Description:
The structure is a single chain. By secondary structure, the chain is α/β, with parallel strands linked by helices. It has 2 domains: about 5-125 and about 250-260, NAD(P)-binding Rossmann-like Domain (Rossmann fold, 3-Layer(aba) Sandwich), CATH 3.40.50; about 125-240, 2-Layer Sandwich (Dihydrodipicolinate Reductase, domain 2), CATH 3.30.360. About 30% of the residues lie in helices and about 25% in strands. Helix 9 (about 180-185) packs antiparallel against helix 10 (about 190-200). The radius of gyration is 18 Å and the shape is globular.
Amino acid sequence: MRQRPLRIGLAGLGSIGQQVARQLDAGIDGLELVAVAASDREKARQNLAGFRALPRIGTLADLSDTDVVVEMLPARAFADIARPTLERGATLVVASAGALLSHMDLVDVARRTGGRIIVPSGAILGLDAVRAACEAPVASITIETRKSPASLAGAPYLAQQGIDVHALRAPTTIFSGTAEEAALAFPANTNVAAALALAGLGPRKTEIRVIADPAVDRNIHTITVESAVARFTCHIDIVPNPENPRSGQLTSRSIIACLRDMVSPVRIGT
Ligand SMILES: NC(=O)C1=CN([C@@H]2O[C@H](COP(=O)(O)OP(=O)(O)OC[C@H]3O[C@@H](n4cnc5c(N)ncnc54)[C@H](O)[C@@H]3O)[C@@H](O)[C@H]2O)C=CC1
Ligand SMILES: O=C([O-])CC(=O)C(=O)O
């Protein structure tokens, strides 16, 4: 039994970070929100107004006395908090799973310092069964991601390929490739494929298809696994966050469930 609560720091107070902060402030036994890092501190103060216990508001460097840092930054800022957190032997909970694929050397840092990298399921389901299946031979793991144009807009791949998603009138496959390729092409839209890859066959053997569909208003993911011990398909429709439709409303809850696991005497699922 821990003598004191786990001290939590939040890196990023955007659409996911704000939800996580609110849920932590509502109170979870064994967890204490002590600090948040935000790029606009005045806006952060406004977002945290009314909190029961106001955490410190500062920069990424101000998270350096926490036990657990929850990374919820744009992919480009991922390493700015991931590396120092792991260098000091703390635990890093990763939202930007796609960005982790370009920084797999951090696993060696964690091994050296005793730090831990934890990738919650986020917006995807079935990682428990994927991990279990991968204890036996697995033939293939694929994911199809279907999103509205608003949930895909701004991805670097669209600009590179000259694709105007807002002009599409019918569902269109705009990308097929590996999870590794997708993480670079769609850094804010394919974290699900990265998490799936890390749970299963790795970023070069996990295939993703991205479909832009003007008729949908959810972020929709379908995983298909063919393995020696089981064949399964998992499907999820997630409500996008109003502040950032690229991210859905399940991810903050997945992070909270993951943090709860760290202090709970009982753990459910693989
Ligand atoms: N694992 C998963 O299943 C999912 C992962 N994500 C990923 O989670 C991450 C966070 O998502 P959102 O909250 O929706 O993004 P967001 O763009 O709404 O929020 C990011 C926040 O980080 C802040 N920020 C940027 N640089 C900073 C710095 N140096 N210091 C402090 N704050 C900084 C921004 O001002 C913004 O408030 C993204 O990388 C997103 O792609 C999103 C959905 C699902
Ligand atoms: O569906 C979501 O909420 C977000 C998503 O696809 C991703 O980041 O991979």
